[in-house]
Amino acid sequence: MTTLPVVQKILSANDAIAAENRAALDAAGALGVNVMASPGAGKTSLILATTQRLPAGLRLAVIEGDVAGSIDADTMAAAGIPVVQINTGGGCHLDAPMVRSALPHLLPAGVDLLLIENVGNLICTAEFALGAHVNLVVGSTPEGHDKPYKYPGMFAAADVVVLNKADVAAVFDFDLDAFQRGVRMVNPQAPIFVLSCRTGEGLEAWVDWLVAACHAEGRRSIPV
Ligand code: MG
Ligand code: ZN
């Protein structure tokens, strides 16, 4: 009886700051995307492959969430992308206060699209609102087609799903129909993009969707 109210209090404090983050993003005219996946699915690769295909003039910034280190942020910076690294110090997810601390370093320079690479983890990352407009869940074929069945909460929370490493699906006996059925069991409408960051196949449709989301008038009505 004592633990549940405490958990609710922590979550609502996070939600309040997530709402502040959303307001800051909206004031800046930036679309925030919470990029979630297990370690190694290809979050960083997807961000890099996406940036190479964004229309000229669309201003991108990235927040890199990691338990430790700055390998991915260094990669982004080397590609000329404005980036802030957040180290969670062992924490398994980003939370709204962490994102709030990064926004003043990025938004004043002008941002149309903010990609927030969460800590690699398919369990709790979706439970902590960051203020992003879009929850993106990235799966990959080596992980197996059973992931939506084993981590339904993540896929239920997705506004959009990307399946990466499509080029090696056969090597891993990946069953695309089973994966898509698993997503649809918990999420009837999130678009599913099947692509490969390595070969570039399928990336164009994903980037088109993302750019359209950036320009969508209605995105500000999406609840935090
Ligand atoms: Mg990464
Ligand atoms: Zn966590």
Quick structural overview:
This protein has helices at residues 3-28, 43-51, 71-78, 96-102, 147-150, 152-156, 176-186, 203-215; strands spanning 31-37, 60-66, 83-87, 113-117, 134-140, 160-164, 192-194. The chain is α/β, with parallel strands linked by helices. Helix 1 (3-28) runs parallel beside helix 4.
Structure description:
- The chain has 8 helices and 7 strands, in the order αβαβαβαββααβαβα.
- With 224 residues, it is an alpha/beta fold.
- A 7-stranded parallel beta sheet has the order 3-2-4-1-5-6-7, with helices on both faces.
- β2, α3 (71-78) and β3 (83-87) form a beta-alpha-beta unit.
- The longest helix is centred in the N-terminal third of the chain and has 26 residues, at 3-28.
- 44% of the residues are buried.
- The structure holds magnesium ion and zinc ion (ZN).
- Zinc ion (ZN) binds at residues 92-93, 124.
Jot down its keywords.
binds magnesium ion; 7-stranded parallel β-sheet; 224 residues; 7 strands; Rossmann fold; alpha/beta; 17% strand; binds zinc ion
What is the CATH level 1 assignment?
Alpha Beta
Main sheet, how many strands, which sense, barrel? 7 strands, parallel
Strand content: 15-25%
Integer-rounded radius of gyration: 17 Å
Number of helical segments? 8
Low-confidence spans? none
CATH level-4 homologous superfamily: P-loop containing nucleotide triphosphate hydrolases
* CATH topology type: Rossmann fold
Question: What is the overall shape?
Answer: globular
What string, H for helix and E for strand, traces the elements in order?
Answer: HEHEHEHEEHHEHEH
Mean pLDDT: 93
